[in-house]
Design the sequence.
């Protein structure tokens, strides 16, 4: 009954989720940006960028999706909106992974004045663009989904290694590992639904809720470890 | 063997030494920071240029360091910064 109602109002649900996730990302970006400005720490910078891109992606989906829903813009623009949403989501995933591995890639002496435009990050922009173009030609989201499954599998392994190294000292690392694992499972479920379950509506709705929980977990984590200011 | 201090810890130690004394002479700050003179100079220049601390010169032309509001803000937020980096593995 509930699933039927939710499935019938899927577009409104998408807009609603987009808005909530956009608000969560804005809160995370504002808090981490303040801490980055004080510390100049590159890891915080890339973590902030990840949620900046998630926020932009979901707000684009919310605002333009609402325009589409109320027929305020031509439905032909749906593909562009999906492409933009996909692009920002892929970039966010790259930044989230990079926030965990930047220390092994950038030397202590490497200081880029911009974390959004620099030689290493431009590779992400190119890769994200290629994935969006491939999806555009193939029709669907297969390349984005597969890339995110691989990306979050790696991120989950790294956060598990971080947790194993400092489980006694840093108790919250377990939480971060769980958040990454849930993220990986959400992308994996998304991929399975697209490839094997032919867009099963109930599963799609469950994935929306799982995504919402994941973003709330990240927000909770940031508030818990940095304090509410 | 003690672990090498991270950059942020060094900054915290320098700013904390200034906070404790309000105004501190360069030589005293150098001793309390536990850095080589060369490293100390680099850190101090960076912290001044970023607006965390400032140099005050008195009538007798003697220099002391003091914290700026941004320096105080850093010390207030240091635990949050450290927690975020350590707990999220950033």
Sequence:
């Amino acid at each position: 009954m509930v699933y039927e109602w939710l499935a019938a109002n899927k577009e409104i649900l998408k807009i609603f989720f987009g808005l909530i996730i956009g608000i969560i990302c804005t809160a995370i970006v504002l808090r981490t940006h303040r801490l980055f400005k004080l510390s100049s720490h590159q890891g915080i910078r890339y973590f902030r960028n990840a949620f900046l891109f998630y926020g932009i992606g979901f707000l684009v989906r919310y605002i333009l999706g609402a325009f589409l829903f109320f027929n305020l813009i031509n439905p032909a623009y749906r593909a562009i909106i999906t492409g933009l949403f996909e692009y920002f989501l892929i970039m966010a995933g790259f930044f989230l992974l990079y926030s965990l591995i930047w220390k092994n890639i950038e030397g202590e002496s490497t200081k880029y004045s911009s974390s959004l435009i620099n030689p290493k990050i431009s590779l992400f922009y190119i890769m994200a663009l290629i994935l969006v173009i491939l999806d555009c030609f193939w029709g669907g989201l297969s390349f984005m989904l597969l890339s995110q499954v691989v990306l979050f599998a790696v991120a989950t392994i790294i956060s598990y290694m971080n947790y194993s190294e400092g489980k006694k000292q840093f108790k919250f690392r377990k939480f971060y590992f769980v958040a990454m694992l849930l993220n990986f499972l959400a992308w994996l479920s998304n991929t399975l639904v697209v490839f094997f379950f032919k867009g099963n509506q109930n599963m799609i709705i469950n994935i929306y809720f799982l995504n919402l929980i994941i973003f709330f977990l990240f927000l909770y984590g940031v508030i818990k470890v940095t304090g509410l200011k | 063997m003690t672990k090498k201090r991270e950059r942020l810890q060094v900054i915290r130690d320098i700013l904390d030494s200034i906070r404790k004394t309000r105004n501190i002479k360069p030589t005293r700050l150098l001793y309390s920071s536990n850095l080589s003179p060369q490293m100390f100079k680099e850190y101090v220049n960076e912290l001044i240029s970023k607006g965390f601390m400032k140099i005050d010169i008195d009538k007798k032309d003697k220099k002391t360091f003091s914290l700026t509001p941004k320096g105080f803000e850093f010390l207030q937020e240091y635990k949050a910064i450290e927690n975020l980096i350590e707990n999220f593995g950033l």
Q: What stands out?
A: Chain A touches chain B through 31 residues (CB under 8 Å). The CA atoms of residues 166 and 215 of chain A lie 24 Å apart. The radius of gyration of chain A is 18 Å. Chain A has one domain: 2-226.
